[in-house]
Amino acid sequence: MARIGPGLVALVGVERGDGEADVEYLAQKTVSLRLFADEGGHFNRSLLDTGGELLIVSQFTLLADVGKGRRPSFDRAAPPEEAQPLIERYVELVRQRKVSVGTGRFGETMQVEIHNQGPVTIFLDSRQKEV
């Protein structure tokens, strides 16, 4: 069972066609995004600034398409043999940036307990990055 202290939980979905550039972008963005309040209450501090930890959980259901019918389609999600290495690379890249990381188990049913101090939920998509 993975546990982290104060920090972030990243639910990560890997889409068909994602690759190394996507993972690198998301790792850098995750650790440097200013989501924590400074002394004035403004979002000016990142995981790197606070020494916060990161729990990374693979979550293919983020890629659900519910536009047609009543059953979600997961056709956009990369198959496990493509997704797992990219999730593992994401973990590795975040750790290289000196952030403490906990992980879920790829492909397993898990219970994730989150205590939000916020509410702040951010959706990062490497395909929406500015060049």
Question: How would you sum up this structure in a few lines?
Answer:
The chain is of the alpha/beta class and 131 residues long.
Rg of Cα set = 15 Å
Order of helices and strands: EHEEHEHE
User: How many beta strands in the DSSP annotation?
Assistant: 5
Share of helix among residues?
A: 25-40%
- Percentage of residues in DSSP E strands: 15-25%
Low-pLDDT residue spans: none
Please state the oligomeric state of the protein chains shown: single chain
What is the CATH architecture descriptor? 3-Layer(bba) Sandwich
Distance between the termini: 38 Å
Number of helices: 3
User: CATH-wise, what's the superfamily?
Assistant: D-tyrosyl-tRNA(Tyr) deacylase
Mean pLDDT: 90
How is the biggest beta sheet arranged?
Answer: 3 strands, parallel
Number of domains: 1
Give me the secondary-structure topology:
Layout: E1 7-12, H1 20-32, E2 36-37, E3 43-45, H2 47-50, E4 53-58, H3 80-96, E5 101-103
Parallel strand pairs: 1-4, 4-5
Antiparallel strand pairs: 2-3
Molecular structure report:
This protein has a single domain (7-128), classed as D-tyrosyl-tRNA(Tyr) deacylase (D-tyrosyl-trna(Tyr) Deacylase, Chain: A). The protein is an alpha/beta fold. The mean pLDDT is 90. The strands form two sheets. A three-stranded parallel beta sheet has the order 1-4-5, with helices on one face. It is built from three helices and five strands, in the order E-H-E-E-H-E-H-E.
